[in-house]
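Handout, section B. The chain below has 238 residues.
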Amino acid sequence: MTAQFHYNARHRRQADALNILALDTSNEYCSIALLAGDGSHEMDAFAGQGHSGVVLPMIEQILAECRLDLRKIDAIAFGSGPGSFTGIRIACGVAQGLAFGLGIPVFGVSTLEAMAHAVEGERVLCCLDARMGEIYHAAYSKKGGDLFRVSEPALHLPEEAPEPEGSGWIGCGSGFSLPALRERYEAKLSAILPDLRPKASSIAQIAFEAFRSGRGMDAALAAPLYVRNKVALKESER
């Protein structure tokens, strides 16, 4: 359950004046976004496995380009997973460290939800390649601009992924690069976006709406959303 963060007077500013910093390091890219009073700003860079060396410099750069002091940030959001175990730990740790020092709330946003947020459509199947022959899966519907979870983030074999009701679904994410998943959902899909990945801009927007609703988490309670409980197959499982 998400713990409520008790906002002080500084955090009760008008919604249009909020400054939210967001980051995602759940995949090979490092994505940083700043949702400030004058608009949305984003940086995206291929990091491979070097997120720990680029994430803080990128945060410093986007703040400098926007001429915004870190102390003016009202909340920090991060892609909590699922995704690369190391990547989501880095994002969580950076968000925690910065938020704890500033005394501001943290928002952990599912990477699958961030993908659904970025898709224009009423029904979205979000699937990420989880390696080891599996996928991370979640389904969402949209109505009146609001996003609703149809199925929780979970780990599945592509050929056993939950079959959604109806048709006209948009499939997005690296999981749809797997032939077995495409075959599984062939009759359900109206479009496939296999190159879509979680981005900090969507994470910032989701956190903005949560902030306006008074939701948030104390930095000490932030945690990654692993979904899978092991990193690699044992030799006997290969």
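Note. The first helix runs from residue 51 to 65. Compare this with the example in section A.
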